[in-house]
C-alpha cells in the first residue's frame, strides 16, 4: 500500500496517523521529492476522475488565472495542470496494487475500506 502526499500537509498527517493507529503498513511517497509521473496521474484519473483528484480549496488553485480554472472540464484538460502544479492534487492519495482506494482523508471512508 502506498500513501502519496507531502509530509507537512495536515490532511496527510491525519491519514498517516490513522493508518499507524490501525497498524496498517504503507509506504509514504513524498511527491515533492519523487514526482508523480504522467502515467500515474493518467491511471488515477481513469479510476477516480478529475473531480476527485483536483483540489480546488488550496492556494495553488486560488492563484491560477480564471481562464486556466475555466479550461479544466475533463480528465484530459486536468492532466497538464496536475503534472505542472502537483499541489493541486488532492492529498493524500491512498493506492494499493495500482488501485486508488481514496483521495483526501475521511475517517469514515478509511474505516469502510476494510484495510
From TrEMBL:
The record's section on Pfam families has: ArsC
Matching Gene3D superfamilies, A to Z? Glutaredoxin
Q: What InterPro entries does UniProt report for this protein, alphabetically?
A: Arsenate_reductase-like, Thioredoxin-like_sf, Tscrpt_reg_Spx/MgsR
Protein name from the UniProt record: Regulatory protein Spx
Name the source organism: mine drainage metagenome
Upper classification of the organism: unclassified sequences, metagenomes, ecological metagenomes
Name the gene behind this protein: spxA_3
Amino acid at each position: 500500500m502506498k500513501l502519496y502526499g507531502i509530509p507537512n500537509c495536515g490532511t496527510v498527517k491525519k491519514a498517516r496517523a490513522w493508518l499507524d493507529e490501525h497498524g496498517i503498513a504503507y509506504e509514504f511517497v513524498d511527491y515533492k521529492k519523487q514526482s508523480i509521473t504522467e502515467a500515474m496521474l493518467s491511471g488515477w484519473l481513469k479510476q477516480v476522475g478529475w473531480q476527485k483528484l483536483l483540489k480546488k480549496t488550496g492556494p495553488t488553485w486560488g492563484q491560477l488565472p480564471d481562464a486556466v480554472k475555466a479550461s479544466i472540464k475533463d480528465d484530459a484538460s486536468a492532466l497538464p495542470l496536475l503534472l505542472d502544479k502537483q499541489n493541486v492534487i488532492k492529498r493524500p492519495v491512498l493506492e494499493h496494487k495500482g488501485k486508488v482506494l481514496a483521495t483526501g482523508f475521511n475517517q469514515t471512508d478509511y474505516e469502510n475500506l476494510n484495510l
